[in-house]
Amino acid sequence: MLKTKFKIARILTVAFSVAALQLSGLGASAARAQAPKRVIIDTDPGTDDALAILLALNSPEVHVEAVTIVAGNVTEPIGLENALGITSLAGRCDLPVAGGARGPIHGTLVVEPFWNGANGLGGAQLPASRCKADPRFGPDLIIDLVHKYPHEITLIPVGPETNIALAVLKDPSIVPLVKGVVLMGGSISGGNVNGASEFNVFCDPEAADVVFNAGWPVTMVGLDVTEITLMKNADVTELEKNAGPEAKFAAAVARFQIGLYQGTGFGGGAIHDALAVGAVIDPSILQTKAMHVDVETAGRFARGETIGNRHGTVDKVIPAGDHFESVGVNPVQPNVDVAVGIDSERFLKFYVARLQGK
Ligand code: BDR
Ligand code: CA
Fold this sequence. Notes:
Order of helices and strands: HHEHEHEHHEHEHHEHEHHEHEEEEEH
Shape: globular
Number of domains: 1
Bound molecules: beta-D-ribofuranose, calcium ion
Structural class: alpha/beta
Helix content: 25-40%
Strand content: 15-25%
CATH superfamily: Ribonucleoside hydrolase-like
């Protein structure tokens, strides 16, 4: 009985939200969607991770099958506690939230208190968690769910790609069974940790290398689009109007980010991870270009850089006596759809509307 009530409520929610989506102008394609897309969010919450999770939980076009935690912005135990706090806030203790990798495949964990505040959430407070962690290891849960729903799961990694890589390395048979990977990470126009590397890829380049080259469809929502989609005070003021607990929390996180980013030269807060979720809800917010992307796993200055081949070719170079010479070009196969453009204003309006329950 309870189950039936829940189903009816969900169908009504989908119907109303699709109507609202049409009104708010975001995504005719999403509005036409029949059934919610099954997604797994792999995350290191993390300020913008929290905003991303809340967007997914407030969007009927996606059904979050699990949240898996990876060390990144914060250590894995703090990330797990934050994720459980977020699902508590959203009243979603039914959702499996599982701990995962506590550090990269190689190298030493780097966490980011400067960018996320001491609690990882910019000081924004969550109620004490009522939800309990799923006992499974994140990568194992990913493997289980992909086999349970073959060809249906979209993975949304918004932290270092360690958990996803561990899942692929343990069970490569998941690769053709995953519908797609829409990740926040990388950049083809410079880094944020340093001149070359974006944080998530920088944290675990070997893992990113596995994920980018696994052979499944990958969409890279990188700094190229996330650093030009900046939440401003006016957006947050809108978000705070008649705000419920989730919107209030999101607003507090966003205010922290805006202050922080302005202090580092940006005109607003970059809510990176929320864009990857937005791109799954409605791929039409992005313009993408198919490219071959390599991950630099060595290098003095550029470990963790994602190098996009914009022309789809590499020079064909042959030996000629004591030197080499180019005699043409060889094509390279694209492995990633790189987000190269975004309708930032539409996305920000959409984000605010969704957190207000519209
Ligand atoms: C990415 O790194 C983290 O700081 C954010 O949560 C985001 O996933 C941006 O480079
Ligand atoms: Ca993140």
